[in-house]
Amino acid sequence: MPKKIWLSLILCLSFAYPVYGYELLNTENLALGLDTYLRADLVSFKNVAGLDSHNKDDHANYLGIDYSFAFSADFKDSGNKFFIKLERNGPYDYDAPIYIHNTLNTSGGRIEKYQGVELLPQVEEFWLDSRTRNGLGFKAGIYIYEVGNGFSLNGNYENYGITLYKETQDLFWRLYYCRPDLVYKNHLGPHIKQEAE
C-alpha cells in the first residue's frame, strides 16, 4: 500500500508541474517549501557493446524516470534552516528504467528494470543549519559543500559533513569536515541489487 501511495504522489505532483517550487507556508516566523522534479526519458540506442549492427542483443529501447521531492524549512527568527531531499534515479545517477524492450546492455554491464520498492525514493540530501546568538553557524548532515560562486568540492556529490562558520562585517571564516562516500555505499533508502554490484 505505501508503494502505491508514493507512486500516486509522484505522478500527481510531478506530471502537473515537472519542475516546480511550491511555497507551502510563509509567515513572519516560518517558511516551508517543496521543490519537485520529474524527468521521463524514452531512450533508444544501438551498438553500445560493439560495432556489429547485426547483433540483436546490442540495441535496446527503454523508458526511464528520475524524480525528487525537496522539503525546506526556514525559521526566520532564529536563522535556522532545515532541508531534506528524497530522490530516485538509476544507475550512474541517470534515470531508472521502468520498461525495457530487448536487453539493456551498457558499457557498465546489463541493467534490469526497476520495479516495486526499487522505485521508492532514497534520502539524497539532508541538513540542519543552525546559528547561535553571537553569529556562530553550524551545519551538519549530508550535503554538497560549495565555496565561492557555487564551486563544489568533493566531486559535486553529497557527503556526510559538518561546517562551523562565522560571518562578520569584515570577515567570513569556515571550518569544514566531511567523510567522502567515494564508492557510494551509504544508501538511505531502498537498496538496488544491481547498483550494489
What can be said about this structure in brief?
The chain is mainly beta and 197 residues long. 10% of the residues lie in helices and 52% in strands.
The structural domain count equals 1
Taking all Cα atoms into account, the compactness measure Rg is 20 Å
How far apart the termini lie comes to 29 Å
Whole-number mean pLDDT: 79
Give helix and strand order, one letter per element, not per position: HEEEEEEEEEEEEEH
Major beta-sheet overview: 9 strands, antiparallel
State the secondary-structure class.
mainly beta
Proportion of strand residues:
over 45%
Q: How would the global form be characterised?
A: elongated
Low-confidence stretches: none
- Please report the total strand number as a whole number: 13
Continuous helix count: 2
Task: Please give the share of residues in helix.
Answer: under 10%
Give an overview in words.
The protein has 197 residues and is mainly beta. It has one domain (2-196). 10% of the residues lie in helices and 52% in strands. The protein has two helices and 13 strands. Strands 1, 2, 3, 4, 5, 8, 9, 12 and 13 form a nine-stranded antiparallel beta sheet that branches. A two-stranded antiparallel ribbon has the order 6-7. The longest helix has 15 residues, at 2-16. The radius of gyration is 20 Å and the shape is elongated. The mean pLDDT is 79.
Question: How is this fold's topology laid out?
Answer:
Layout: H1 2-16, E1 19-26, E2 30-46, E3 59-75, E4 80-88, E5 96-101, E6 104-106, E7 109-111, E8 122-131, E9 136-143, E10 146-147, E11 151-152, E12 159-167, E13 172-179, H2 193-196
Antiparallel strand pairs: 1-2, 2-3, 3-4, 3-5, 4-8, 6-7, 8-9, 9-12, 10-11, 12-13
